[in-house]
Every structure is written in structure tokens, then in C-alpha cells.
Amino acid sequence: MPDAAERDLGSRGDALQEHFERAPLATLQIDGESLFTLYANRAALDLAGLEPREILGRRLDESLPGLVGEHLLPLLIEVGKTGAPLHRAEVGFTNGQGNSRCWCASAWRTTEKREGTCRLLLQLTDISEDVEQRQELTAMARQMRQINEELVLSALREEELTQRAEAANDAKSAFLATMSHELRTPLTAIIGYEELLSDGITGPVTPEQRTQLHRIRDSAMHLLALIEQILTLSRLATEHEKAQSERMTLESLVQATSVLIAPLAAEKRLGFRTELPQNDVVFESDPLKVKQILINLLANAVRFTDQGEVTLRARVEGKDLVIEVHDTGIGIAGEHLDQIFEPFYQVEQKATRRVGGSGLGLSVSRRLARLLGGDVTVASIAGHGSDFTLRIPTRGRLDESGV
Ligand code: ADP
């Protein structure tokens, strides 16, 4: 009859057996010598996909041939021999359905009553999904590295292209500067000789000859203006154009532009009016650039108007000086309003050619205005005239006085 202590041990053994049986972790007991499976809990049978008779009392490599033969068996033999536990070894194999699986195996030697024999406890977990995720992450990291390398390469390529483009741009500017000088010199000579002839210094001039001489002068002046516009545009494009800051008065600015525009308007029998604030406005900006913008806007207003008048209105709005150029001319249809500020864009090629344009005036004007911290905008209706507005900051040092 077993005494109380033995019964107690027996019932503890049963409880332990019960515990192993229900444990979610696949657990097997293996004979360290024969590698026969002595015990496999429910989780182990489920994991291996085997019935108890297919695994119990059989060598582990018979029940799980591929896996054990290739990976697990040598490790378990080592544990049995040395007693050094196996800690979370990853063993991969392909199951009966041809799917790749990966198990994580831990094993250690348990002490036995009989000498010379040992038993091993083997615990297995299916980590196939973790491994798959890890492989995906590794592949993603590899891809990211590749993308990064490509990005670095394309950034280098872009930098090289930018440098080449900048060099080409500089070469273009240098070419334009040289060319414009080469063109300007003979043009100035042509204008000079035309003046000598017109003034009758070289001999009497017939009315017919005078008309031809005027045509020569007009064409030469047009060419000169075109060269100036191209030069300014190229300097603006390469950011070589710098803005100066000088103190000036609105009245002197308007005066300097009016003397050039009034005769053009008079020639076409157009009215030309200026409406300025009562007190003159003193402001700081780049006088040459503001004048160039105003001349472009006013000359356009005269060129594209056949009847009525051109009006220049100026006012101060907060810290801005606002100058409007209004005309009663042909106007511009809505779909062209944005594009007229693009270089060489002309609404009506025929009409523009009739009045002799280059398509550069507005793009130069807007870029100059932006360089000064302002802008040029337009409001217009085809057939009903146009309003071009130049707005420039007065650099915060604006005052209205009687200068
Ligand atoms: P262009 O030398 O041809 O006048 P601009 O850049 O100054 O070049 O103007 C571009 C185009 O915008 C002109 O060709 C014309 O079609 C239109 N435009 C400019 N100003 C006016 C205006 N005041 N009235 C009508 N159309 C205008």
C-alpha cells in the first residue's frame, strides 16, 4: 500500500501531467538515447499534425522526417550528450502540403532516476508568420536602401544638371551682353547719322527723304528698345538684375514718363491725363526700373487704343504706392489675361504687328515689379479698354509732403 507521501507525490505527478497536456505550448518528452518520443501533449500533436500512434514510441526522425533529419536531430543529440540546453533555435522545413514552416525549438535534459539514461524535454513554437514578417521587413529595408541610394544618385544627377544649366545660362547672358553691345554700337551710329541727315548738316533734305529718314529712325529706336528688353529679361532670369533704392517723388517720376508718352498720344489724337494725390508723394524705390515699367504700360495703352484716352492715376494705399494705367482701347479677352505676362506672348499677332510689339514689355514689367517687392496686374474686357495696375512698396519710409 502506498503511504501518504507517495500518494501525495502521485497526485502531484498527475496534476503536472494534466498541466502539460493542456499547456498551449507544444511539449514533447524524448528519450535522450533512442530519440523515441515518450510523450507529446495535445498542442504538440496539433502542431505536428499527427495522431498519438504516429509519434509515441517512435524515433523522432521517423515521425517528423524532414525536419528532424535535417535540423533538429543533431541539436537534440548534442543536448543529450553535453547537457547544454538548446535555446530558441529556429528550424525550417516544408510540411506535407508543401508549405514552408519555421519552428522555434528549446530543449533541455531532465534528470532521471536510472543512471546512464536521460530524457529531454522539447518545446516547439510555430514562428512561421513572424519569420515571414521579418523577411518582408528585411526585403522592405533592402528596398528602402535601394530607393535611398537611387534618390541620392538622382539628387547628384540633378545637381550636376543644375550646374550645367547655370553654366549654360551664364554663357547665354554673357553672349547676350556681348551681342547687345555689338548691336547697340552700330545702331547708335545709324541714329546719329540719321540725325545729321535730318538736320540738313550734310546738305538739303527733300520732304520725301525726310519721311524715309523718320522711318529709319523709328526702326532703329524700336530695335534699340527690343535689345534693352531682351537684356533686362536675361538679367532678371539669371538674377543678375539688382534693385537700387533711391528717394524720389511721384511727381518727378510721372513728369519723366509723361514727356515721352504725351507726344505718342498726341500723334494718335488721344487724350492723356494724369490724376495724382494733392500732396506729392515721396517714396523709396529704384527710379530707373519704376520708370521702365510705367513707360511699358503707358506705351502699350497708347499703342492698343485708337480712340478716347489714356489716364495715369496714382494713390497711396497703406504702405504701397499704386499706379493705374487706364485706356479706352481694344481690351483683352479673359482667356489671355494670365498669358500676356509670359515672354513673347501676344494676343493678336496681326494687331500687335500692326502696332509694332515684341511681346516682352509686360513680362519684363512684371518681373521688375516683383524684384521691387510689388507686382503688375491687369483687369480688362475685350472691346472696353484695359486697366494695368503697378503696386510697389514704398519701403515703409513713405511720407506725404510738399517736397
Ligand atoms: P508687346 O510688345 O507685344 O506689346 P507686351 O508684353 O507689352 O508685348 O504685351 C503683350 C500683349 O498683351 C500685347 O501683344 C497685347 O496683345 C496685349 N496688351 C498689352 N497691353 C495692352 C493694352 N493696354 N490693351 C490691349 N492689349 C494689350
How would you describe this structure to a colleague?
The chain is of the alpha+beta class. Helices cover 51% and strands 21% of the residues. The protein has 11 helices and 13 strands. The protein has helices spanning 4-22, 42-48, 52-55, 60-63, 65-82, 128-198, 207-237, 250-267, 287-303, 349-354, 361-371; strands at residues 26-31, 37-40, 86-94, 100-110, 119-126, 246-249, 271-275, 281-285, 309-317, 320-327, 375-380, 386-393, 399-400. The strands form 3 sheets. A 5-stranded antiparallel beta sheet has the order 2-1-5-4-3, with helices on both faces. A 5-stranded mixed beta sheet has the order 7-9-10-12-11, covered by helices on one side. A hairpin with a 5-residue loop joins β1 and β2 (37-40). The chain is rod-shaped and about 145 Å long. The relative contact order is 0.07. The structure holds adenosine-5'-diphosphate. The site of adenosine-5'-diphosphate (ADP) has 23 residues, from α9 and α11.
Largest sheet: 5 strands, antiparallel
Structural class: alpha+beta
C-alpha-based Rg, rounded: 47 Å
Please state roughly what percent of the residues sit in beta strands, choosing from under 5%, 5-15%, 15-25%, 25-35%, 35-45% or over 45%: 15-25%
The SSE order reads HEEHHHHEEEHHEHEEHEEHHEEE
N-to-C span: 129 Å
Mean pLDDT: 86
Number of helices: 11
Helical residue percent band: 40-55%
